[in-house]
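Checklist before submission:
- one chain only
- standard amino acids only
- sequence pasted in full

Submission:
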Amino acid sequence: MSETSGTSGTGPRLRAVLDGIPTYKPGRPAAAGGPVAYKLSSNENPYPPLPGVMERALAAAAAFNRYPDMGCGELVAELAERFGVPASHVATGTGSVGVAQQLVQATAGPGDEVIYAWRSFEAYPIITQVSGATSVQVPLTEGDVHDLDAMAKAITDRTRLIFVCNPNNPTGTVVRRAELERFLDRVPSDVLVVLDEAYKEFIRDPEVPDGCAIYRDRPNVAVLRTFSKAYGLAGLRVGFAIAHEPVAAALRKTAVPFGVSQVAQDAAVASLRAEDELLGRVGSLVCERTRVHEGLAGQGWTVPESQANFVWLRLGERTADFAAACERAGVVVRPFPGEGVRVTIGETEGNDIFLRTAEAFRKERY
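Returned file contents:
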């Protein structure tokens, strides 16, 4: 191309809205061959795939020269039966975060607002800004819980979507039934409320509602779930939403064609059919969560009661030092600089190393 043709060599013109989008930070892996032996930085399930899942996934892999079922027909039917909802109310995507992005795309654009608590799931500001919408971040209470009154007061005529992460990532705290229903009663019917329940299976508090029960008589409520956490399929990227037909139909329109692989679909179906084994594994992780929480409390830490598969330590300016101490000891945790660390409940040995490190750190620094 000659110097006089076209425009100056500045490259393609990209959307200005992309400037300043925060980068999603995955949990750091355990260093291969290094001192770190346990990865507690991502909310993964430490157990291998459930019985029958690997066999089903390997069988599907034999045909990956073919496109997957774009409608995820078998998986949708299985989910509809499992949750007692019409198949037309189920929509799938690449993990619950993929479905969350589809929901934002379907509801919000430039000039619109998306409300969520902060700190909460760090993908929310990213997917909001990508759509061109404006984030409205409502601080958590001093107890690291959603401030639903403040979130209701933040609603304006530009609000299009509200995320309620329950349990909340990274604090593990929950919104209970009565307060959630009061909040929903205050939300205009044309504003979509998304109950992000990625950690639903780990909840033991009987006052925390099942979003699938809440959504049934509220057309402006959608529920997000995932196979990445309790079901142990984080590497396959499959999640789903349960929502009334207009919202579910919008999700199908905004989905990436063939986004959920056949391996992921078949593994998810097999996982649903191994629920007894799943519940046993989740029960073991909940027991380990209780042990870790009690251990931290016994050391003198103030730790929010977690209903997820992780615990949260608010460390402020000591966050980076604590994360470094954990890494030296042999575990990697997820630091949020200047705020705190999230620590996944993993293998017993890794949890023990974390507890010993927390005890030593507290004696040295407090």
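Reviewer check: The longest strand covers residues 159-165.
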